[in-house]
Amino acid sequence: MSGKRILMAKTGLDGHWRGPTIVARALRDAGFEVIMIGMARPEEVVQASIDEDVDLVGLNIGGHVDVAVRAVNALNDERPDLPVFCGGVVPPHAKRRLEALGVEVYPPGSQLPDIVGAARRLTGLD
Amino acid sequence: MAGHDAVAALVAEAVGGSRSALARLISTAERGGDDAAALEAALLPCHGESYSVGITGAPGAGKSTLASALTTELQAGGERVALLAVDPSSPLTRGAILGDRVRLQPHLGNPDVFIRSMASRGHLGGLAMATCTARRVLEACGWPLVLIETVGVGQAELDVAGATDTVLVVLNPGWGDEMQANKAGLMEIADIFVINKADRAGLEATRRDLEAAIAANAPARRPAIVETVATEGTGLDALRAAIAAHREQATASGELAQRRRARAVTELRDLARARLELALDGQLAGPAGEALAGAVTRRELDIDSAARRLVADLLNSDSQRGASRGDPEQDTP
Amino acid sequence: MNDRAMNDKNSAGKTWTSASGIPLKPFYREDDVPAQHRERLAAGPGEPPFHRGAYPTGYRTKPWRIFQLSGFGKPEDENARIKFLLEQGETGFIMEHDRNTGDHCYNVDHPEVVARREDVGLTGAVMQSVRDIDICMKDLPIETSYAHAGGAVVQHAPFALAGYWTVAKRRGVALDRLPGTGQSDYFLTYLGCVTKQQVPTDVGLRFNADIMEFCDRHLPRWVPVSIAGYNAADTGLNAYQELGALFANAVEYLDEIQRRGTMPIERAARGCGGVSFRMSMDLFEEASKLRAARLMWQQLLAERYAITDAKVANLRIHCVTAGSRMTYQQPLNNIVRGTVMALAGVLGGVQSLGVSGYDEALSIPSEHAHQMSVRIQQILQEETNVTAVTDPLGGSWYVEALTAELVEKAWGFFEEIQAQGGFLASLDSGWLHEKAAENQHREFMAQETGEQVIVGVTAHTDDASPYEVDGFMGVDDAFDVALERLEEGRRTRHEAGAADALRQLERVCRSSDNIMPAMMDALEAEVTLGEIGDVWRDVFGDWATPIQT
Question: Is any Cβ of chain A less than 8 angstroms from the Cβ of B91?
Answer without folding.
Answer: no
